[in-house]
């Protein structure tokens, strides 16, 4: 794997998400870190080639930077290979976008499917869900079950 690319992706994610917290009040960067770890485990299990595995893990680190920070697609294109940025953009939700259109875009990019699956695995982790209040947990459980369905996967 290209450790330089992965280190750069991690550094950009850490800088971009500095000071952010998740719904439970924890440092937000822990989420991309776990998504990258999930992506790494899946890449090994699925025996992805080194280039694809590196791209998936880098995109996992970066998966929320365009959606949730001031980092732009152009910023990423200056620093990362097209396949990484394309996967990040595929999983980036657009304002007012229909959920079916969003998941159709994700499904059209195989690397994005890996990233989104790793993201959903973290978002549905029982330990993470347990930190949330009951109403938030119920709302998110419904949302994530629908996401798995729209990806054509089982929850």
Structural features, described:
By secondary structure, the protein is an all-alpha fold. The chain has one domain (3-151): Orthogonal Bundle (Hypothetical protein af1432), CATH 1.10.3210. Helix content is 70%, strand content 0%. It contains 10 helices and no strands. It has helices at 3-16, 30-45, 50-62, 65-68, 73-79, 82-91, 99-107, 110-123, 126-129, 134-151. Helix 8 packs antiparallel against helix 10. The longest helix has 18 residues, at 134-151. It starts with a helix and ends with a helix. Keywords: Hydrolase. Pfam families: HD_4. Residues 24-136 form the HD/PDEase domain.
Summed up, the domain count is: 1
Major sheet attributes: none
Question: What is the CATH first-level class name?
Answer: Mainly Alpha
* Tally of contiguous helical segments: 10
Going by helix content, strand content and strand pairing, the class is mainly alpha
CATH architecture: Orthogonal Bundle
Could you give the order of the helices and strands?
HHHHHHHHHH
**For the record, what is the CATH homologous superfamily label?**
Hypothetical protein af1432
Helical content stands at over 70%
Q: Whole-number average pLDDT?
A: 94
Number of strands: 0
**CA-CA gap between termini:** 29 Å
Low-confidence stretches: none
Which of globular, elongated, flat, extended, rod-shaped describes the shape? Answer: globular
Give the assembly state of these chains. single chain
Stated plainly, the CATH topology is called Hypothetical protein af1432
Protein name: Bifunctional (P)ppGpp synthase/hydrolase relA
Organism: Brevibacterium casei
GO molecular function: guanosine-3',5'-bis(diphosphate) 3'-diphosphatase activity
Keywords: Hydrolase
